Amino acid sequence: MNRIDKRFKELKMAGKKAFIAYVTAGDPDLAMTRKVVLALEGAGVDMIELGIPFSDPVADGPTIQAASQRALMHGASLKKIFAMVQTLRRNTEIPLVFMTYYNPVFQFGLNKFFNTCRDTGVDGVIIPDLSIEEAGDAIALGKKNGVATIFLIAPTSPRSRIKAIAAKSKGFIYYVSLAGVTGARKKLPPEVAANVKMIKSMTDKPVAVGFGISDAKQARSIAKVADGVIVGSAIVRLVGAERGGTVKNTVKLVKGLARSIHGK
Are 48 and 35 in contact (CB under 8 A)? Predict the structure, then answer.
């Protein structure tokens, strides 16, 4: 069983929701990313999305764009990130998901990419700019290698498209809480709960909500309706601001979010 499926099953049996944290791989360097991943697991995170830095991250807001630029300036590459994941697997079994644009995958080679995910311990892949209509090869290679291909549903997606995405997505379904780019928001759209309930009425697969969630109150409200809560920019901002290799401020935020999501 894929680590993602196993973790969702464990959480459901315990009556808990998944806390999924996003960090930009290589920001400020890969040694720090490795340290952050282990620290986040210890602070209560259930799964981690590793953002693959890219020069033109069109779906990302300024926080993650800046983190990607810092990572690229310090030499981060897909090959090096795979190597970092391989070393991480000596110390953790936490589910790891790559969030990447299609360009780095294409340049690496689609078949080689999924083979390397399998060999290094990457459990899932999210490619926001790869539509389900164009994802046949990726889905087939993901299935062959035991790597979940996770797709996004937007607030504007019609019911017919939601059904199609829900049928294709593996691991979990990523519901984007708002139109636009990533980034912390003071308020989330009021229709999030209704939209998540509607998606869940069409599928038995877990539904996780991301984009805009930045504090414990928002995380708690999302956890009431979704199977998972994804927090990215709020964590990336603190990682980028940490000094001297410490992660204490990031861990403090994450512990508070974990308590809210897990219902403690």
Answer: no
